[in-house]
Every structure is written in structure tokens, then in C-alpha cells.
Write the C-alpha cells for this entry.
Amino acid sequence: MDGGDETEERRQRATELMEMAKIAIEEGGFSHTNMTLLIQDIMNQVVIQNKQPL
């Protein structure tokens, strides 16, 4: 009734995904790096727009 092997496989996969997510959001991880680049790009666009005459 507990699901046996399938339940254990799901738990193991969930643990693997959790570890991958932790690595991605750590400083230097893919998500952290991409978010940092996005913020820098937005800030650069604001600076460029503020320098253009209206």
C-alpha cells in the first residue's frame, strides 16, 4: 500500500531536483548569474535612456 519502489524512486528524484535547485540559486549558480545579468542590463538601459535628450 506504500508504493514500494516507485515511491522510493520519486523521493530520490525529488531529492536530486532539490539539490540541483539549491546549486542553481547559489551565488555563481546559473539562476543567480542570469538574474544578476538581467538586473545589470535593466540598469544600463535606464542609464542610457536618462542620457538621451527628450
